[in-house]
Every structure is written in structure tokens, then in C-alpha cells.
Write a structure and sequence with these properties.
The structure holds two protein chains of two kinds. Chain A is of the alpha/beta class. Chain A is built from six helices and seven strands. Chain B is elongated, with a radius of gyration of 34 Å. The chains are: A alpha/beta, B alpha+beta.
Amino acid sequence: MADRITAPLRQISVSLRLVLLLAIAGLSLPLQALESGSLEPVLDEISLPDLSGQTRTFEHWKGRTILLNFWASWCTPCQYEIPHLVRYQQQYADKNLQVIGIGLDDRRKLENVKRSLGINYPVLVIEQFQGADLMAKLGNPQQVVPYTMVIRADGQVMHTQRGQFDDESFDLFVKPLLARP
Amino acid sequence: MRIVLKPTLLSILAAASVLFAGITAASQTLVSVDSKDITLADLETALASSPFYTQFNTLGETEQAAMRGDMLKRLVTAKLLETEARRLKMEQSPEFAREMEDYLDGVRFQKYQQGIKYRVAISDQEKRDLRRENADSSDDYAAALSILTTRRYQALYQLTLQQLRDQYPVNLYPERITESLQPDTVLAEGETFQVRYADLSPGPQADDDASAILKRLYDQLEYQLVVMAARAEPVDVSKEKQRYIEQRLPSLLLDAKIRQWVPDEDTLRRYFESRPQLHRLKDWWHIGQLVVSSREQAEALREKIISGENSLFQLAEKYSIDPAARTNSGDLGWVLQGSGLPEIEAAIQSLQNNEVSPVIKTDKGYHLVVVINRRTGSPQYFSQIKDKLKQMMISNQLQQYLADLQKRHKVVWQVMESDQRKAHAILNKN
């Protein structure tokens, strides 16, 4: 009952904010966080080894704009996408961007891909089925890779995308979050 | 500094040298065939377009180097064949030209359509609207965008076809699609072309009916119009033409050589019949062995075995100079015919099971062997291994042919000396 009443109200407020934002900043999209709010606690609990075996949590990158990319070594679109992510990291590191990969794969294979494609950002390692479960909890119930999440510096998830993350998405969802010089 | 080395050693070095792709220019020549270069960029392109590329990136450095080396060797082989085919002027035959034009028409057709796709523009405003309508899900947005793009492309494409029909007037004769339709019946014609029933891809069909023929006629006309427009524009296919020649000539030459090497089944049969070793599968023998360093000792031990005083296995454990034989009491396990010392194999042929052999001298020492058990290979018939035989014949001939081609066309492997040192370091490490 309550849902039925609040839902239309929320929609109205969303579109109002949208209009305001468009009017004020001339931006193409609303920059409010995703509505659900259920993803952030899952991110907080992530604790995974990187390729060197050191355990990492997202606490480490708090305060940075995070592009979190789930991938696997056998996934061809992932490999097409990675050079773009490498370029983003290179170009926008000084604007507080941090790309983080989560590889659903064997560590040795991930490491080889890292070397072959010149990956310049940390890659965390997770077993394939656990990785699929994690993605399901993070807004990707289809459990497909590549899957990319845009996380604002304050930890809010701003956008999620299944399939290749392209320049259009980067311009639209990441650039507005980056620090201005 | 450029150096020139023999290919065998060098293919390994080249493979390793390419590991250092990062520090060498993409235009660096790795190998040249009659002064035509195979560059690092060529090698990387070949790798990137191969079906195993995704997997390639997951391999370790040494494995990648080996794969690069293999790929480079393949490129050299193809370049050799291409160079030879050009020497034979194979690309100048009318048949080749016709085949190539057919292929290039296909490319023109695709590129022309691609050009229309590029002209389909979705404005930023439209994208923004779509984003707003699908704010909850980027999947929905992507789907909506793709539907809009497809619709707009279809509309633009149909409009273009209409314009082309005005530009190149076409007379259609659907009324000729009757029972008496012949392959050379003209079903449509324009100023510069005719479409006969036989031209309709994939050619006349046994179960053709009027509506199926009409549909294929429209498809063919669409193809014809677009190709004409693409030729008139003109759509540039020079790169595709060059690639077609480079890729087609090697296989064309190879096909011709294969027809020469294995012209018919009789050739295969003669090859089979002149090689008795192919007529049955190899035997497996379960063998026991004892090796000592003098004939006298071997003869003495043999007497003990024959008299029943000791078995070969007891003696092998005690006296054999082959350390492996001693730990296994001389039991060598199952051995495939052709994999052992020839002197011993010859002796085995005439032995009964569990009969001790005479003393056999090899450069390892003096052997006594027994066959504990044997599995005799079953007969192999020509019809079973026909395809394998063909492959065997081809690969034998091909090796010789490629060696001959390397004498005719100069193959120069070019490797940077510094890379070579690094290559050595890497090879030694592994």
C-alpha cells in the first residue's frame, strides 16, 4: 500500500530534480544516485586479494571516483573494453579516477592478461562462481560480464552497466564526477 | 645492426625477440621474402585476427613467444607461396580476376550499406530523451537506442534503393516466372545489366516456386543496384583487393600443387601399397630386460635363466646396469613397436612369449630380453586411412617444395642484436 503511494511521488521528485539540474548545469542527465541504495553495503563488505595476493577492501580507495569493472580472461568483449579502461586510468588518474578490475578467474591467467594488455590499475581476484554471486548482489542478476559500476567519491553507486562500457557512457556517467582542475 | 641467420635457429630467436614488442617499432621488419617485408605490425595483426587471440593474452610469456614464432613461420610460408604464385602470374588469369571481382562486389555492397549506417544520426537531444525514458536501466536504454538506429537505417536504406531504381531504370519481368522458366530466361534488365534466372543466388532450385523466385529476384536486384552505385561513387576497395590477392594466391598455388602431388586415388593407393609398414597398426610388447657390460656375464646369466635357477627379473634386480631396470626388476612395461633400440626390436620379432633372447649387443651394453605379453596390431586397410595418407603425402611434398622455394626466393630473417641477447637470456631461463 505504502509503495503504491510513494512510488509516483518519488518519480515526480526525480523528474523535478532532473529538470532543475538540466536547467542549472546544462547537464544531460540527472546525477542522483541509483534509487535502491542496497548496493553500497555489499561493496563495503568486499575483501579480496589482488594479483600480488594482498587483501584489499574498498576502504583503501575511499574518496576517489571508482570505475569497478568485472571481467574474465575468457571473455572477448571484456578484452576489447580493457584498453579503454587503461586509457581512462591514464588520462584521469590526477582527477581522482580509480579504475578497479575484479577478475572472475584463475590468478595466473588474469596476470598474463594484465601483462599482455598493459593493465595499469589494480585487479582483484575472485573465484568464478563467487564472482557471479557477488555480481548478482551488486545489481547484475543476469551475472554477465563485462559488468561495470560507477561509484561516486562518497561511496554512492551512480550507474551500472552490463556489456561493454564505452566512451559515451564514460562521458555521461563518469566525467561529471571527476574533480575539476 | 641487422644480422642474417639460418631460419631453424632463428625462428626461435625471432619468436623470443618479438616478446619485446614494446620497445620496437611496429614497422620493424622481422623477415623479408624477395625484399617484401613481414613487419611486427603484420605479425600482431595476424595474431589479433586469429580465433585464439582472447586465449593468447592469457598465456605466459614463453608460450606467447612460441605462438608468435609459429605465426611468423606461417606468415613466411604464405609470403613464399604468394611470391611464387606471382612469379607464375597466377593473379593474371581471367578466372582469378573474375573470382576477385565477385568477392570485391560483395565488399562494395557491404561498405555501401555501412556508409548508410554511418549517415544514420541520432542527435544528442534524442539520446537524452531516450536516457530519460529509460532512466532505470542502461540495458533498456541500449535496446531502445538500437531499435531507433535500426529503424532509421531501414528507412534511409529503402529511400536510397528507391533513388537507385530511378537512377538506374530496371525493367522487371515477373510474368516470365512460369512452368517453362529456363536458367537463361531474363527476369530483369537495366541499361547495363541483365538478371537471368541462373544468376539468382544460389542458382535454380528443384523446389522453386514463383514467390520464392520473385523474392530472390528482388534480393539480386537490390544487390546489383547497390553494387552499381558503389562502383559509381566509387567505394574504395583497394585495401581489400590487396588483401584478397595476398591471401588467395597462397592457397590457390597450394591447391594446384596438391592436385599435382596427389592427382587421384590411384596415386594414394600406390603410396599405400609400396609401404608395408602402413598395412597394420604397430604392436605393443610387454618387455622384461636385463643389461650388463660384458658378453661373458650376459651368457652366464642367460644359462641361469634357461636352467630355471633364477628368473630374468630376479637377476635384473641384482645385476642390471640400467638403474631404471633395477628398481623395476627389469620390467619395462608396455612398449610400442618402433620406439625401442632396433637391435632389440629385431630380436623380439622372433621370440616366443616368455622365451629368453640370445645375448643382444647394443652400444648400451649386452641385453637379455623376454616378451611377457604382446598385443599384435590389427590390419589397417587403405579405405580407413585414405585421408591420413593424403595428409602424409602432402606434408612430405610440401616440406621439399618450401625448401625449393627458399632457394628461389630470398628469405632474410632480420633480428635486432640486442633483442637476440635478451632472447637468449629468456630461453636460458626457461
